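Q: My collaborator sent me two sequences in one message, no labels, and asked for predicted structures for both. Can we handle them in order? The first one she listed is below.
A: Yes, handling them in the order given. First sequence, followed by its structure tokens:
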Amino acid sequence: MPFFLIRNDITRMHTDAVVNAANKTLLGGGGVDGAIHRAAGPKLLAHCLTLGGCKTGEAKITPGFNMSCKYIIHTVGPIWKDGAHGEREALVSCYRSSLALALENGCESVAFPLISAGVYGYPVEEAIAVAEETIRTFLDDHDMTVYLVLFDTNAVSAGTERFREIRSYIDDAYSDAFAETEKRRSQRLRSETELDFIGSAPMANFAMPQMAESKPPKKQGFIKKIKEKKEDLSLAPSKPEPIRPEPMEMPTFCDSVDGAMSPADFSSLEDALSRLDESFTQMLLRKIDESGMTDAQCYKKANIDRKLFSKIRSDIYYKPSKSTAVAFGVALRMPLDELRSFIAKAGFALSHASKFDIIVEYYISRGVYDIFEINDTLFAFDQMLLGTQ
């Protein structure tokens, strides 16, 4: 465990073993077979001459020679006729035989091409379904990292009818997120425009109260009027005290739903740091216990490597990747709100500005927690897969 779809050139995979979709002679050919023979060099052909060929559905192993892998496992897939001539059984046997050889030779990682889906004509989606089912069944009982390597995403294309509904869901989510963003942007720009107008517009643009035309006072009696005015001012009441607003109580984080404490509850920084909330690792382990799963059941359902899980368990402050955090949430079948709180422990959130987030939301909101089905969709839309570090 785990299992990933990956887009790559299989000759560049850094795994313990690489599987070759060979022909019965094992002497090289076109497609993946030819690419592997070219990458491994002439010694591979010389070695294959001693093997006496290989039957359909069976597998044989050789050194990796010039390739970065330790071993090359050669298997012969079935030629597609109509699906009624044992093609599926033969293809399942290819994967089982190859995995058994990898296990027998101590391989911890192996990379497969999509066997028989090229010139042998096996329907691509059916070939992928057979590969996934066979590999997942094997990984239920064995710890090994397995890759199904596709040269491009056309094999699991987001343009197929299979993903019609999810494409529509993504488009709607993007539209809603864009509309909300544009609304906030428009409000901000309108507010800024109004402030700029008030601050820079000339005074002539504003209506001023009309003043009655005044005439210069006559000199006679003017001094007397000034004296009377001074007397009136001396009798005027003193200037009233300005009205002071009541001080507002500033909000603190003590109002959060998880019962976080306010700064007033801490006597010092050391006191505050001593009251850290539950970490991601602590919450994960608690949720595993509450679910009734064993650790192994959980990390396998999450498509997580055993070594990575051990690292997380041993470090209370471990910071996982987003795909790892979400994968555990899916394995533990968390509802969407609970998943949001869970991944927040690792510093992440779900957003409609991300295809990855929208796809995860799509499946969880429908109660679908099959991590491999979710990963197929993520791969088709060229997103990171659940369980990747």
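Q: And the one she listed second?
A: Here it is, processed independently of the first:
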Amino acid sequence: MKVKVLLMTLCLAAAAATGASASSPTLSHDDREQATEEKKDKKRDWKSRFTIGGYGEAVFSRNFYSENWKRYSDASLYKDDRGHNRFDLPHVVIMLGYDFGKGWSMGAEIEFEHGGTESAVEIEEEETGEYEQEIERGGEVALEQFWIQKSFNEALNLRLGHMVVPVGLTNSSHLPTQFFGVYRPEGDNTIIPCTWHETGVGLWGRTKDWRYEVMLIAGLDADRFSNKNWIQGGAGSPYEFKIGNSVAGAARIDNYSVKGLRLGLSAYYGNSAANSLKPDKFEDLKGSVGIGAFDFEYDDHGVIARGSFLYGHLSNSGEISEANRSLKGYGISPGTNIGSDAISAGIEAGYDIFSPITKLKDRDQKLYVFFRYDFYDPMWRMGTNRRGQQLLDEEQWGRQRFAAGINYFPMKEIVIKAEYSYRKFKPQFNDEPSFSLGVAYAGFFTK
């Protein structure tokens, strides 16, 4: 009996081994290669979903004018100043993106301005020349963008998170390869935030020759407005959060009907007085900010021309100026007069002298000779205070700027810039000429 059981056990074990061998045959050489290639494809698919890139600028400037804080209040004393040199890293940005699939994606940008963490010691030009600790935003680095996007089709994309507000030419085209000057265009970069980024929700898309964006975002903070920079400081926050008692709307539309030409309109509207940690100082005030802008870009036949016009209005500017002066002691506000209306206009044009040379054109090398003109004034119009008195216009902040130079592109992603500029003031102030050199890159490091 024991022998029979043993024989049956051996037979069953042999049958099981035979069945296992039949169901799991040894892979052939070709099958192994195919399996390896499938694994590689999965890895390549993961890599193709991930993107990393960025942009950065390094600049040297020779300024042929005084940097003394009293150069506007006592201009005659500094007319023959020897000038000064400056080295700078205006912007260094790391861009990250990932495509999750099924229309979901993520984008992020981490920005370092002037080689630091947005905390600086500055000399107050319009006050007493004291050193002042300036905190532009809470935290150690600036998170310029962080959003999650759901794409339904080319014409409809939903974006949630921290995004660039595309008002004006510079905010929509702020990479260093998208403007000729060594620094960003001075007008928009002075009176509105650049790059302007806020947290909210947005829709964007493109259909045929039209592209649009609409956003609902956190409103500006009135106690950060100033004489020199109008509403620019209101986009930042010295706290670990952004006050959002008032929300705002922004929109942009671009048209590409003409070959090589883009025409754009953009706008912003929102109240700002309620977005303060001391809202009682702004009682019964709205501080409505309205901005409208037009811009264009032409790029064809070796010519690039860009231009923009921006106008903004701030309601209750006189009352807000008085309220901000009461906040200066808290270290919250600059405490200066603020214009009720601000204006910025600029135009630049350049010609690629390499464009007729076939060999250089085929290598994607370009050498643009350009000219640029800017006019801007953050105190274009002044409001009145609660007593009906008109606020003083500080004329040193209204300026014209002329610039000429070259942009050399050894390849699409890299540009070397040289520029001579002349900042012109009203006769009672000293003009400010300067020469600047810069090198910059912008692009993606993954394909």
